Amino acid sequence: MTHTRLLALAALTATATLMTYNAVVSAGPEPAGDTPAVIDSRYQKPSDDELRKRLTTLQYDVTQHEATERAFDNEYWDNKEPGIYVDIVSGEPLFSSTHKFKSGTGWPSFTQPIRSGVINEHTDTRFFMKRTELKSSIAQSHLGHVFSDGPQPTGLRYCINSASLRFIAKDDLEKEGYGAFLELFK
Predict the structure, then answer these.
(1) pTM score, whole prediction
(2) What are phi and psi of 71, to 5 degrees?
(3) Helix, strand, or coil here: 100?
(4) 44-185 is classed in which CATH architecture?
(5) Which of these is catalytic: 9, 16, 94, 159?
(6) Is the bond preceding residue 36 a cis peptide, omega within 30 degrees?
(7) Mind listing the pLDDT tens digit for each residue in 137-149?
């Protein structure tokens, strides 16, 4: 992604964040094109006290303190069911099984987010290397990292911690309030 495009995306994300609590929009997939999704006010980050009560220690450490779960020893690395993956903290839709692929890394891997605007990218220089960290746009939950060694059409590998996600099976999308995403599976 070019520097200019990153700056434009950051400006759009900041604008959308300011509008978050004033607008209610559809949680469904965005229309075709490269327009970032507007943030849905139904998805919010709970207080730290609420997160500590609701999340497991691993989920809390991964999402709030940028920990990493063990490869091949996590809930979704080998999940093949159709459905979507949402932020364990806010419920914001992040990824679809239609973009999931077997990367051999031991973590769930995707070629792209469910729609643009739901992931923020940050430079991560920990562990003596430069990587691109991924955080959810609403709750700022640490998700994982993106690498440029993925399959086409994007060439990207969004390598995500299962502990930062909640999976909603295709058959449960309607009852869980994510019915607009059923169109991804037609």
Answers:
(1) 0.79
(2) -65, 145
(3) strand
(4) Beta Complex (2.170)
(5) 159
(6) no
(7) 999 999 999 999 9
